[in-house]
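Subject: Interface between my chains keeps coming out wrong

I've been trying for a while to get a sensible model of this assembly. When I model each chain on its own everything looks fine, but I need the whole thing in one frame so I can look at the contacts. Pasting all components below, labels as-is. Any help appreciated, I'm running out of ideas.
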Amino acid sequence: MAERSAGEGRRERLRRETWRDLRAAALAEVRDVGAAGLSLRSVARRLGMSPAGLYRYVDSREALLTVLIADGYHDLADHLVVALGAGADELRAEERAAPQVPVVAPPDAGTTARLEAVGLAYRAWGVSHPNEFGLLFGDPIPGYAAPEGGVTVEAMRRVGIAFAQPILELHAAGELALHPALGAREIVGQMGPMVDLGASMPAEVAALLLLAWGRLHGQVSLEVFGQHHWLMPDGCEALYRAELARMLVELRAVPEPAT
Amino acid sequence: MAERSAGEGRRERLRRETWRDLRAAALAEVRDVGAAGLSLRSVARRLGMSPAGLYRYVDSREALLTVLIADGYHDLADHLVVALGAGADELRAEERAAPQVPVVAPPDAGTTARLEAVGLAYRAWGVSHPNEFGLLFGDPIPGYAAPEGGVTVEAMRRVGIAFAQPILELHAAGELALHPALGAREIVGQMGPMVDLGASMPAEVAALLLLAWGRLHGQVSLEVFGQHHWLMPDGCEALYRAELARMLVELRAVPEPAT
DNA sequence: CTCACCAGCGAACACCGTTCGCACTTCACC
DNA sequence: GGTGAAGTGCGAACGGTGTTCGCTGGTGAG
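Reply #2:
Try treating it as a single job with all components included. I did that and got this:
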């Protein structure tokens, strides 16, 4: 009786819907009990399925976590992209509403403002999604979860690109502080034989990008994982804003004093 | 027949030895399979004990992990203290050999050199103890592992102190760059009602200390947790050294240009 | 209409953390 | 020295977990 539109049979549709529900249930479980506490049986209960039934959709618990990791990177990347003030057309092509981000750079904002917005959005996402943050950036899964050229690296590239975009703009405008003493040659030398940082990404800029990401990540990581909780129980926003401001200053080229 | 020396009965001695072996076995287990994979039954097997027997020494798996976390912080702190070039007398009073640290500042080294040594030791410990690093700085234990004024915070204070020492020296020498724009007042305002940073630790210095720690921690965290593995499979030493050097420069006061 | 396919299920296996009651040793006290 | 309390370890058990296997019954293509 169904209309059979466009070769999408009833079975395929049901399967896709179940698959979507499964991921949503698993994500909810992670939000509730954390990645380490995710239990396939509990996910099955949420879905009203039998535990064995899940294995029609997922190879193992670890595989499910890998899917959630990729989803998590995409969600984070979406938030960063929105904070950049970009149009919603750069979002992931997926059935997902545009995320609500507290600080969004206005479309005509300067490069520095956009970089600041991305930095703030990074912390905001981590603080408001602590278990997902732990899933992405905490202990790797016990048995290892490094799928070679898999779906997760592709997703985390999007996060890197969000950070890279304003930094590349800064570089294009000649406002990025590139010290030759950085030792970019050695750093890039440690990179894999062929890491294709698009053509417009010089090695020094790539190194600066990694350093900037790590610098912000350290603050967020210590805060989200509770390392500062006994010191600052109400969160570390002031600390983070201070570091972000310092970083923005130091990233910009200071005109050399005439010697 | 035993000599019963100094009120230490046979039973207490055996108990202490078993307790030491238990912690060693659990640590070995963590090193092998990671914190998330630690299994009490497996620890019991290593000891040739029954699983139930462990409960004479440990209240639960979580409690054992808490002990390991405290041990881990002490081990890390020991490494940092050694790197500082301090005498072994500042090490933790425990039956433990002084750790071997690759870079040790000579006893008469300048403050900057000692700070650099601590920074390098931090990464060196993380890279060579990835699973313990994950235990300390990865996801908090699913059910939470924040013992209020417990043994772990005391241990992680030692880590903070190791970082603080050279920074305080820098401050005492008037060589620490303290920007009023840092907003130290707000930052310290977010700190708990009474955090006793010893008398010689001004608020601005405390803020700078947290920022410096986080800055280095971010790099180590991303590297140890494998976030950069696809980019730099052979480790990120060059990247880290660059960031450490930049940080050392920026921490030192630049003499104000005469206006 | 037929028949391959496939989602889902129940039962089972091995492993896990944890509890309980029981043997056995050690120690303190009379 | 004898006696009773305290401590140590064990085996069995319970409920939970991830995962596999063989089965049923509906789906969809020829």
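Reply #3:
Confirming on my end. Chain B has two domains: 8-58, 70-251.
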